[in-house]
Structure formats: structure tokens, C-alpha cells
Amino acid sequence: MNNKNRRFMIGSAAALMAAVLLARRSHAAGVPGPALSADERALHALNRLGYGPRPADAAAIAEQGAEKWLARFLTEQLEPRRLPQPEALTERLAGLEVLRLSQGELLSRYREAVRAAREARREQAKGETPAMDALNAVREKVRPLVQQAATARLARATQSAAQLEEVLTEFWFNHFNVFAGKQAVGVLVADYEQRAIRPHVLGRFRDMLGATARHPAMLIYLDNAQSAAPRANPPGENKLRGLNENYARELMELHTLGVDGGYTQRDVTELARMLTGWGIDPRATSGEVFEFNPRRHDSGGKTWLGQSIPGSGQSEGLRALDVLATHPATARHLAFKFAQAFVADDPPASLVNKLADNFRATGGDLREFTRTLIRADEFWSREAYQAKFKTPYQYLLSSLRALDLQLANPQPLQQALAQAGQPLYGAQTPDGYKNTAAAWRNPEALTQRVQLATTLGQRSGVSAMQLSATLGAALSEPTRRTLASEPAGQQVALLLASPDFMKR
Question: Is residue 262 part of a domain?
């Protein structure tokens, strides 16, 4: 796209956004709107419980009727294992090596890369190897596995019939975030999603909490693999650095209780002591690699969250996970985050209370937790409709689905996400990516989305009329009127850059 066309598109998108926002502001006037129509409810479900409509979804809604389609959709999405998957998706996932390798094999790949880098540095010191080759030695072995992990995620999100499972995987991965750029985490991130997150999104929270706590990606990312009692120095291992509190702190602050969950710095330290010895078998070359090493464990008594904890090895950590998973503060913390992600940046207190009550009553059954959200009046309210601003990831996926574009080469899409500030598996801090509008709605983001919209629109060959039919009730009358006055060749891109499409 040349500079003249880019300026035209950005100016047109800005004008469209201003017109639509002005119309909405005058229409709303602070008064709650009428109940959602059946078509709006169907589109709302696709946008919140999935990554937006595809043309086939719009056709099915038209054929079956919105109410009938929606009832079936909601029932099926809560039972994802019963949904048949597209053959193309199944074949693509089967061809990804990273999904077949065990944790031990993945770590062996990383160790090979480190050895290759070491050798390259030695060669470099002798003047026999260019300076960049030492870094490339690691990247050449690690990068393909990270790219395959991203390919699997994008392919599932765009093609899978189990759309709710995909958005829940995104949410819970972000909740238990690990950063692919730290040490061996990159080679393990696909396994982490595949084993620690995905199987549990409609299971029990305690199971997911335990799976993430034992996974080598989390143990490496938050440094618990190197945490040990100060006296510990097992024979044959590198000298240990002593107690590391990183995982214990985030386990309470982010994963369970929340920052206002009533714990103290002493509780962080005591929990870190309880989790010493939770690490990785350095000799493993196959299978799972979690290891509890009693020689690294602080076997002394602890006082944690007001409880006396006698030294009892690995069971101390298991007991801590049991307590945290059922704590009332955990229910409140998770309920707020869930309602914020799926309903509104400032979620209704009534909904948060419903979710927290359900979490406590069911012992953290995430299927029932999700069902409570879907059955809540607050989820289907006019105020919730298109109240969430899409993150770059959600915007990209909804664009691909609306245009029915096949995921041929995922690398340019990964680059687009990186440029937008949300690279897959690239959140460096443990709190993951934000899901509120304030984090993503800015002039630079608008410019990037216009550019992406233009590129995707040109690739798709879809007409504005076809795209409008797919988006249906999600498009407001101001958007439709404004688009009618724009050149036909620009209308698809403008639809994707409209404020209606940027919201879900």
C-alpha cells in the first residue's frame, strides 16, 4: 500500500470511527438499551465465546434461525470433545513435530542448542566463526519449535469447531503465563499449553493449578527449578543459589489469591520454602521431567497463612496448592478476571459475585464456572454487547475468520502480532497481556489495524457485501451508511477497520 492510499485509508477509518461513536453517544444517552435481538445474541456468542463469525456460521444462523442455532451452539461448546474437527486442521496438527515430542526430548533439543552455541563461541574466540553464529546456533534449533507452537495455536483458533475451548485456552494460558524468550521455555511452550492448560479449561481449577506448578516451563520461567534450601548442594550438581521466591509470590498474587488476598511477605517466603525441591530431572531425555528432589527441600517447619506446616517433603507443596485452590480470595480473584475478560472491562459486581459463589460451591469446576457466565443475564445485556475492545490477537483471528482466509504461512501473521505488541507466547511478565481497551486502543494501533485490514482484504477477494452478510447484526447503521459513500475497492478494509469490528 503506497503512502497516498495509506493516508486515505487511515483518514477514512478515522472519519468512520468518529461518525459511529457520535451516533452511538447520542443514541445511548446513559439509558440502558433494549434486550438483544436473537441475531445479536448469536453474534455476541460468536464474538465472546469464540473468535467471531465465519461465512458458514452466518449461513447456519440464517438457515436454522438464530434462537435454534444459539441453543445448539451453547450446548455443543461446553462439550468440545464431541465436536468433529475439520480434516485439514487434524492433518496440520499431526504434522507438527513439537506436539509429538516429550518434555525430555524437547529439553534435549535445547541442550543441544546450548552446546552448539558454546562451540560457536569457542570458534568465534579463535576468529573462525562470525559473531552472530553463536546466537544463530541456538535460534536454529529453538525457533522452529516456537513457530510450530504458534502455528498450532493459530490453526486451532481459526479452524476449530470448539471455539469456546480456544478462547478459554487463551484466557487460562494468559492467567498462568510463561514467556517463550526465557531459556528453555520456548521449546516447552507447546507442551505447556497442550498438557498443563488445554486439558483443564473445562475441568477442575485445582488440576490446572497442579499441572502448571509441575510443568518445566513454569519451573524454569519463575525460577523454582533452581530454588533450594540454603544448605542444599547435592553432589554432582551445580552450586545452587538458595531460596527463590519468584514462583511462590506469583502463585499467590496472580494465580490464586490476588494481590489483595490477605497474605504477607512472610507467607511468600514460607511458601517458597514449602516448594523447594520442586524442579526438573537434569538427566531426563524422554517422558515428563518433573522431579521432587528431597536434598533440595527445606525440611524445617513453616508457618503459612496462619497454619503450622510440619516438614513433610513434597506433600507440603501439594497441601499449599489444595489450600490456594479452595480459598475464598481465589474465587473472588478468578471471578473478577473471568468477568472482565468475557463481559466488560469494569464487570458488574453482581456477575462477579455469581461466579465467585459458583466457584466455591463446585470446588472450582471450570465447566460450571463457564456455564454460570453463559447463563448470566449480565453476559447477555445490551451494556455488554460489543463492550470489549479486541486485543491484537483477537482482532487478527476475527479478521481471518470473517474473511474465511486459510492459514497458509503463519509467519507474517506472527510478525503482525509482534508489531502490534502482542507476540504469541511473548508476554515477558507473569501477569500476561492485558484484556482491557486502555492497553490496546491508541492511534498507533488504529494505523496498524488499517494496514493489516487492507492487506487481508486484498488477499481474500471477499466483497463488502459478503463481509457485511457475515458480520450481520454486529454492524451498526452508522457504519453501513458511512461505508456506502466510500469507494467500493476500500470498503472491505474499512469494514475491518470500523469501530464495530474492533469491538466484540
Answer: no
